[in-house]
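Hey, I was hoping to borrow your eyes for a little while. I'm sending you its amino acid sequence along with the backbone structure tokens. Take your time with it, there's no hurry, and the full record follows here.
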Amino acid sequence: MSAADTAPAVRARRRGPDWSRIGWGVAGVLLLGLLWEGYKAIGPEDGLVIRGVRVLPRTSDLAMPHIWEIFIRISEGTTSSSRSEPLWLDVLLACAVTLGIAAVGWLVGLVIGMALALLMQRWKLAEAAVLPWVVLSQTVPLIAFAPLVKTWGSQIEIGDFEWADWMSVAVIASYLAFFPIAIGALRGLNSPDAIHNELFRSYAAGWSKTLIRLRLPAAVPYLLPALRLAAANAVVGAVVAEVSTGMQGGIGRMLVTFAGQASGDPEKAWAPIIGAVLLGLIAAGSVGILGMILKNYRRAEVNA
């Protein structure tokens, strides 16, 4: 690679944050808000039903409150009691619980995904045997699998060890997180050109040295997008698992609880939904810290 080819990459790393991307992200959020209010202003109150199928949602205040009313409600107390904590604080605490569990699931998924990728890269027979099962694992309905994990976990007895509900949620989160990591890492580990592999063979470098010096650095552009996707998947898995297993304290259970109160307090039901969206953005964005650490290997991230 010539100096002319590397100069743009060096300048990009020195330039700092890409403010244009941040600006487009903010513009997208504002556009979504305008579309919400625009449809509420002109859309039919009962929605649009075609042949018994509702293709457009209702625009009533019960189904679609105004955005400013939602944020006003978030700033108020969770209940009508004068001693009630602010709704935003309860949502924030619930998000913190779910984020911690999702982080554990992400770490477990990282270990499992990397181990499977290394196994499949090392032996082609292992790839042919394991990869179809890795893909097939993602076809299992999560909402049916979560209660089984809780049941199996509750039967584990090792001395004084007691299986907690959050462990079942973490297992479900790791179940969704390991897949993109395994696939992305496998593609990255196999990405070095044949000429580079031949160069290492000519120096009699073993598999482990080739892995550390060649394959792992080459896998970074593939692995970082996979880690972001895995982080978002871990949050989704944690939220769904909280709902399916009935675990208290997280944002998933809050979604169900507040949804049951939507008929009397529709703005309140949207608070945990906004919290869950922000939680996914925080989880995926936190991987950017890892990307900063590995910036020297981020030539160009590969998403496909």
Q: What stands out?
A: The chain has eleven helices and two strands. Residues 1-15 have pLDDT under 50 and may be disordered.
